[in-house]
Every structure is written in structure tokens, then in C-alpha cells.
Amino acid sequence: MDPWIHRFRHRLLAWFHRSRSVPILYVRRFSYREIKRATGGFNRVVYTNPQCAAYNARFQDGSVALVKELRALNDDVFKTEVQLLGRLHHRHLLTLRGFSTGHKRLLVFDEIGNGSLRDHLNDPLRTPLNWRARLQIAASVAAALEYLLLFTDPPMCHVSISSNTIMLDENFTAKISDVGFLYSPVSSGDQADASKADDFMDEKCGNIIYQLGILILELITGQSSDGTSGDLIKWIQGKNFARSMNKMIDPDLGNSFDNKEVRNLLSIAKLCVKSREKPRFSIPQIFRYLQSKVDVTSTY
């Protein structure tokens, strides 16, 4: 983790909790039958990973939501996770609407009117996202990551960033859908716990920055990483990277992009990919750069 974050994280948290009280939004208890019906019998899979499976759900009132099935959590831990997720308040994170226990431990999140980012990068029947929209998505994701790293207590311990897990609402506002708190052995408490949390975040920050780099590559190339990112990583780390930049830019962008901006963002993505083991800069630094390119307002 960036030394600045190490130094000021706890002060920022103290200031944040004093300066505003974020209410835990009311979350509804859904019936298992209701969610099963809305997800087509859990057949409308959006993505899966070791922590969860996510489904597209259409409820009887016509709302379209994301349902997540959490794995390997007992009922008590699941209820705590619901409480922690209910505290999150950021315009680029999906808001928790409800939950269900019993047959499965399920979370119901906000509407996802325009599906996932991957849908818009890969589906030829959808209108392609222009360059400004893609820049906005990258900046929005970085803003949410800054919030998660600086202003959550206990700190989040799981976040997955990819075109699969970034959802777009009816206004094409990007929202991170895969965040968790209770997959680590640390929790808030005494000074020793705080030290453990910082150590844990050190391990996570490099991977988060790496994932952000892959997401930027997906936005520029229009290629989905499909969880492996192998081809994109080989390209950006290869000897012909500089000479092949123009060939790798998504043809759907047409002439809507600024060549200098693309090259600068590719340079950032390359540094992000190299930062998996040893981060060379912080999420706030990336966000500030992206913020200078588009109009992004962070809502904490």
C-alpha cells in the first residue's frame, strides 16, 4: 500500500466518521422462491469465481437486478457481511437491496439496466461505447476503488475488477459488483488488528492495481480477458508493444479517440500490470490522472 495511505488511512477514517454519518440502508429479506423465479432457476449466470456466483434477475415488478450467491459463509458470518455491505455508499458501487438465507445465501443488488461492461464490448448487436464513455468507466472504477481503500472499516478484503464484474445502469454509470469483507482473517478492533489489516491490504493492493490495468486494456482493445488475460498481458509486455499499439485499438472506437490519450493510458496499464508484486503507484494517483481527463464526481 502507498506510504501516504499507510500514514493517513486511520486519520481519514476518523475524520470520515465524524464528518458524516452514512446510514445503513434498509435491506429487504427476499424469499428463496422469489429469487429463484427471478433468475430463471439460477440459470442466468453473469459471472462466477471462487467467492460467489452472480445472476441476472428480473423480478415481477419489472426491475432487473444482480443476485449474488455467496459461498463458504455460515449464517452468522453472512449476516455480518450483509451489515457491512449495507454501509457502503458510493455511486460507482452496486447498492445492496436485500438478501435471502436458507437454501442459499443470496444478496440482491441494484438494478443493472444495461448489463455488464463485457456485454457492450463483445456483443455486436449493441451500440459500441465511444472513447469518452470508456474513459469515464475507467475513472469511475478508480474512484470506487479509492473509496474502498481509504474509507471502509474494516477494509474490504475482496474485490474483482473486470469487464464481467463492472455493471452499467440505465444511464451507463459504471458500478463495481464484486466486493467482499469477510474472506480474510482480519477485522477491525485493537491496534494489533489494525496492523494485520494494513499488512493484508498491502498484499491486496498490488493485485487490485493489476486488475485495473487489465480492465484498461479491455476498454482500449475491446477484448475480454475471460479471467486469464493471457493474450493481453503478452502483448503489453512484448517487444512489439509500441509498434503494434494502433493495431490493437478497438475498431469500434472509430475516430472518436485521442491518440495521445490512448498511448498515455496504455502506458498506465503497462505499469499497472507490472505492479502486481510491487506497486509503483497508488489507486488515488491513477484516479487523479483519469479525473483530469473526464468529469468525475466522487460520492462518498
Automatic annotation (TrEMBL):
It comes from the Eukaryota. SUPFAM superfamilies: Protein kinase-like (PK-like). InterPro entries: Kinase-like_dom_sf (IPR011009), Prot_kinase_dom (IPR000719), Ser-Thr/Tyr_kinase_cat_dom (IPR001245). GO terms for molecular function: ATP binding; protein kinase activity. Keywords: ATP-binding, Nucleotide-binding. Residues 32-300 form the Protein kinase domain. PANTHER family: OS01G0253100 PROTEIN, PROTEIN KINASE SUPERFAMILY PROTEIN. This is Probable receptor-like protein kinase At1g49730. It comes from Cucurbita maxima.
